[in-house]
Amino acid sequence: MTDRIQEFFRQRRAEGRDLGPCLVVDLDVIRDNYGAFAKALPDTRVFYAVKANPQPAVLDLLARLGSCFDTASVVEIQQVLATGCTPDRVSFGNTIKKERDIARAYELGIRLFAVDSEAEVEKIARAAPGSKVFCRILCDGAGAEWPLSRKFGCVPELAVGVLEHAHRLGLVAYGISFHVGSQQRNPRMWDGALKSSAAIFRDLAERGIHLSMVNLGGGFPTKYLRDVPAVKAYGQSIFRSLRKHFGNRIPETIIEPGRGMVGNAGVIEAEVVLISKKSADDQVKWVYLDIGKFNGLAETMDEMIRYPIRTAVDGDEMEPCVIAGPTCDSVDVLYEKQPYLLPVSLEIGAKVLIEGTGAYTTTYSAVEFNGFPPLETHVI
């Protein structure tokens, strides 16, 4: 929580504009985060994951700072190019793309594409001839608070054939990518994936195909309820693993921070709509907010991301509560399996501040479900 965000909320309440939940993002925090990544991994290019927060002001700032961009759709590509960023600083990082979208990206100047199968390689060869491709491999995401599934990537053994196929079709077999899971709190989790990557580099080199790049993915965390290691610790651990597995021939590297870049830059102000119990002897209160899973807090699914929630009476006695959203859908419950401690004196109508919400909130905010508008957002 920065002084600038606190002042914004004070002004908003004073002017009577606090009619619903509101996210405020402080660009100064993002500027500091970008500097920390650049310093921690000085020889690595930053490709900001646009899906984390595509607000134009956020993209404009990062473009000015020199960031590159990881995009998942033609729309995201166009959003980045609208900043004046050149196409050579953009990758089409989604491994699942319509061929016409590949063609459109190629028209826009994009020449760097992710793949994880021979079928995707063939689409790119037809629609974006001569482009660079990198193959995403599956890896262990243990330790991540938002683990990624098997939806993206292939086993390392298959990646060799995928990239060899790309080479035969006239594409540039450029490198390997992986993702160790979002909100990865263990800096050492990159080691196993880098070991697999180095083996793929060696195997393809024996076949006369020389890869150039390792995409280290995202996974860099932001602080929620628990402390996380500093970016510097991740940089040191990753560099040690690069030296261990690649020796003196360290390849070009890129990272794709999203949450770690913008997560701690945002705070949501919300309102308590109702406090109730389900029975007379219920030991847990239900606290309903005017924001829930469908209004921006989708990452509370399975209670994986536990946001810090601050109130004006945090010094009072605390009690366990179930926290739920406002919609008439029974899955719109944020924290129930592990009740959340909130002040006993918290009242209906009170404002609460939900910290660490700069990433994956506006982009997960549904449009008009139950008539609730998308999450109001301000960038300062």
Describe it.
Helices cover 30% and strands 24% of the residues. The chain has 10 helices and 18 strands. The relative contact order is 0.15. Helix 8 runs parallel beside helix 9. Strands 1, 12, 13, 14, 15, 16, 17 and 18 form an 8-stranded mixed sheet that branches. It folds into 2 domains: 137 residues, Beta Barrel (Lyase, Ornithine Decarboxylase, Chain A, domain 1); 165 residues, Alanine racemase (TIM Barrel, Alpha-Beta Barrel), CATH 3.20.20.
How would you characterize the largest beta sheet?
8 strands, mixed
What structural class do the secondary elements suggest?
alpha/beta
In quaternary terms, these chains amount to single chain
Q: What is the strand tally?
A: 18
Quote the beta fraction.
15-25%
Helix amount:
25-40%
How many domains, as an integer?
2
Indicate the CATH topology of the largest domain: TIM Barrel
Query: What is the CA–CA distance across the termini?
Result: 13 Å
Radius of gyration: 22 Å
**Stretches with pLDDT under 50, minimum 5 residues:** none
| Strand and helix order | HEHEHEHEHEHEEHEEHEHEHEEEEEEE
Q: Helix count? A: 10
The CATH C-level class name of the largest domain: Alpha Beta
CATH superfamily of the largest domain: Alanine racemase
Mean pLDDT: 95
Shape field: elongated
CATH architecture of the largest domain: Alpha-Beta Barrel
